[in-house]
Amino acid sequence: MLFSRHRTHLPTPEEALKGRPEPGFAVPDRHTVLGNPLTGPYPEGLVVADFGLGCFWGAERKFWQAPGVWTTLVGYQGGHTENPTYEEVCSGLTGHTEAVRVVFDPAVTSYAALLKLFWESHDPTQGFRQGNDVGTQYRSAIYTHSPEQQSEAESSRAAYQSVLTGSGYGEITTEILPAGPFYAAEAYHQQYLDKNPAGYCGIGGTGVSCPIGVAKAEG
Q1: Is 185 in contact with 76 (CB distance < 8 Å)?
Q2: Are β-strands 47-53 and 129-130 bridged in parallel, bridged antiparallel, or unpaired?
Q3: Alpha-carbon distance 20 to 8, whole Å?
Q4: pLDDT per position as a tens digit, 99-143
């Protein structure tokens, strides 16, 4: 990804860029692969889950390919700056990480299955980096929308830590926090790898299966 200054510590609220009260760009209406609206409100009965696992281009594709996913949307989450731009996030001065909002049908899939896909699609032990992508915007994160999601995410982290430790990996650095504001990213980031099939994808897992969910996710 471009423009990164490889900042490896989070800014305080006082250090963070101020941002703006309204987005500086428009977001497309519909998902280029799934055909459904990108932004809410979403149909009744669907559930929202938010994940950060490195560059959101490849991360989003992992989720839109999963059964039961109704739509996906990439954006910025977990920081201080209101309505940031991509360049601001990559400066390391907003505190946000690159995130994927996943809207799914719980009658078809489960939060546990999405957690399994999340854990197996990246290396959650790398801190402020993912592979060759270095910076606070690439940190691993789960932002939860209910106490049930929070508990399930924390339990899945403990389960995956056990098998990672047995495979020689270090401590998981994934932050698991209640969801705050999610700021949609610019239009060209949405479904980037559908628009650019040969585009950059920095997503890669550890090869260690996560012992939750229904079946090992296929990449």
Answers
A1: yes
A2: unpaired
A3: 24
A4: 999 999 999 999 999 999 999 999 999 999 999 999 999 999 999
Q: Tell me if the bond preceding 41 is cis, omega within 30° of 0.
A: yes
155-164 pLDDT per residue, tens: 999 999 999 9
CA nearest to 56, candidates 138, 131, 120, 118? 138
Spatial CB neighbours of 204, under 8 Å, sequence gap ≥ 6: 122, 123, 131
d(CA 160, CA 115): 10
Distance of alpha carbon 52 from alpha carbon 138, whole angstroms: 7
Reported as a single tens digit per residue, the pLDDT across 194-206 is: 999 999 998 999 9
Does the predicted TM-score (pTM) go above 0.90?
Answer: yes
Rounded to the nearest 5°, which phi and psi values hold at 110? -135, 160
Catalytic residue among 55, 90, 201, 210: 55
Q: How many Å apart are CA 72 and CA 50, to the nearest integer? A: 10
Active site residue 55: yes
37 by DSSP, 3-state: which? strand
| Residue type at position 118 | F
| Distance set, CA 216 to CA 57, 89, 113, 116, 135 (Å) | 22, 32, 9, 7, 29
Question: Tokens at residue 34, please?
Answer: 């799934």
Q: Beta strand 69-77 with 97-104: parallel, antiparallel or unpaired? A: antiparallel
